[in-house]
Amino acid sequence: MSQSVVPAAGGEIRDVRLTEALSDRYLSYALSTIMARSLPDVRDGLKPVHRRLVYAMRQLKLDPNSGFKKSARVVGDVIGKFHPHGDQSIYDALVRLAQEFALRYPLIDGQGNFGNIDGDNAAAMRYTEARMTAVATALLEGIDEDTVDFRPTYDGEAEEPVVLPANFPNLLANGSQGIAVGMATSIPPHNVGEICDALIYLIKTPNAGFEKLVDFIPGPDFPTGGVLVEGRQSILQAYSTGRGSFRVRARWEQENLKGGGYQIVVTEIPFQVAKSRLVEKIAELLTARKLAMLGDVRDESTDEVRLILEPKSRNVDPTVLMESLFRQTDLETRAGLNMNVLDADNTPRVMNLREVLQAFLDHRLVVLERRTKHRLEKIARRLEVLEGYLIAYLNLDEVIRIIREEDEPKAVMMARWDLTDAQAEAILNMRLRSLRKLEEITIRKEHDELSAEQADLRDLMADESRRWSEISGQVQGIKKAFGPKTEIGARRTEIGAPPSDVVIPMEAVVEREPITVLCSSKGWIRAMKGHIEDVSDAKHKEGDRGRFAVHAQTTDKLLIFATNGRFYTIGGDKLPGGRGFGEPLRLMIDLPNDQDIVGLFVHDPERKLIVASADGRGFQVAEKDVVAQTKAGKQVLNLSPGVEAAICAAAEGDMVAAIGENRKLLVFPLDQVPEMSRGRGVILQRYKDGGLADVKTFSMAEGLTWSIGSGRKRTETNLEAWLGNRAGSGRLPPNGFPRSNKFG
């Protein structure tokens, strides 16, 4: 399509392809999300909104020793000057920077309600107050000394820093979470003392191996504590690739009670887990009878976490109880590691641990060099002025005469003593009180000190090893200010060993109770408590009657075989209670309306079944191979066109009895029926008319049994007349065999 340009009052209108317009705009949006919103900078570990918050607070002079200001004031300044977005999103970012349970080293000191570990929100911004912490001031240290680049703000009225000088390894120390377009980042917090040790070692050994770095940084250090139970090899793999995860568990202890009982006290929970939601989840599982070893849970927390877990019995092993809770609740979580960050060139990429540490050191080297150059420039300007002052003191009478008598004293002085414009201007601006002798001595002393400092800084710029030594000293200072010997620096997350394989009994996960499963002819299913022998009194809907009655446990899986040749699976604990008529089974499994149920079994993974279709074909199948993973079931018996599946029975004993709709009975060995996992099978019995009516397996020694009504059964042991091979036609059954042609 050709482009045309049409003049318009507001500019110009261009004809472009929609795909090109969408592509360009989506690309711009994606880049904006990646670079200006979601991914942190590897150098200072901050996203733009956090960097702008800290910088705006510095402009408001909210340092740690000053008073607090309303959070609304801070948010207003950030919106108006730097970040034209919604006030709530900015306030949420401010709140997170102040939460001690969210940030390992908070950047903001909050006063008021800033939320809690239960997941409650902070108070409105008009009620809370904030100021910077010492960590935030360390991030800003040297920002006025040309250490970083500045760029215009969104409206061009002011400037903001592209990155902070960052005299604190914030990316690893506080971590970061973010989702961009097509990429995400997830960096857990770490201990700053350990980070500093790794940085100092990396300065000495630039190509340090990951084994050694992990010796210094053995894993994350979460603000909420807990126990890291990830294996060293997994941790090493995660840090060497920049991707992985860490398994974190709650910290707990056993508290003995009077009378020989005990209770479990959880004192620390995993990072980013809301305590109230955790208690609710445990209570829900308890109500659903999925925590048979747990008796009760309650929250006795104040400023410190204290969750009480009471076992159902004093005989319950506390380790087994906690293992069951770790597997089913957020008392154990996984903290992801995906070190996807913006590098110094503003390019997003995944870095490993050594690259992240080296990027911080490289940034600190750039800051040191820029800061040194800035100081050298200031010293050069000051020395220039001081040298002018000294010339004036040496020729004081002449300077006074020129100023009093000459029309252009500045030009005369510049020509007389070869002064620079800055020197001449400084002399003219001198106060009379500066002419005393003591002031000359002070100036000479300052000149000597600055000259010495200038020489020292020039030597620093010429010696790279000395610059790295200086950075090493700065890192030592970070460790001293925020490391393990300080109030906030001690490691909170314990480095534990990977848990051993603790055998958890099934009853520890789901409460095991006996039930009787009833399924009616119309497919209504329910579970009655206990094993009921006589279910003839069970009530059903009008026009419905009982069909299947199975004894099971709440922990059992039930297998359902339908006329479409598919097996469906449902848990015993998922069935409706015995009150009423139950619920339609079709609502629990995806059983088509034109299909019917022909078999209901308690799953036994060691057992085999025999399945057959109405045309007399079938095979044996292992039960472990028919368990369905979805509601749609699992196709096992493939049907011939126009044929419906009809039979499913347990493959027990050594013989098979098959009876057709033509009332012919055939008995043959079970080992003639092959075992398959899926298919049509082999011919079990041949028919001229009709098809297969029923099939049963039995033991020849015990005889063939069938139901004759009213709960009575008959057993026939003399079966020679009906013995044959598979695919035979058979002969009429014994006298008294049911007219329904069913074994019952």
The major pleated sheet works out as: 4 strands, mixed
Segments where pLDDT lies below 50 for 5+ residues? none
CATH class of the largest domain: Mainly Beta
Measured as a percent range, the helix fraction is 25-40%
Tell how many strands the DSSP assignment holds. 36
State the secondary-structure class. alpha+beta
* CA(first)-CA(last) distance: 77 Å
Any idea of the CATH topology of the largest domain? Neuraminidase
Give an overview of the whole structure.
This protein has 744 residues and is an alpha+beta fold. The protein has 4 domains: 46-165, Topoisomerase II, domain 5; 251-330, Gyrase A, domain 2 (2-Layer Sandwich), CATH 3.30.1360.40; 372-482, Orthogonal Bundle (Topoisomerase, domain 3); 512-722, DNA gyrase/topoisomerase IV, subunit A, C-terminal (Neuraminidase, 6 Propeller). It has a 4-stranded mixed β-sheet with strand order 16-11-10-19. Strands 12-13-15-14 form a 4-stranded antiparallel β-sheet, with helices on one face. The chain has a 4-stranded antiparallel β-sheet with strand order 22-20-21-25, with no helix packed on it. It is elongated, with a radius of gyration of 41 Å. The two termini are 77 Å apart.
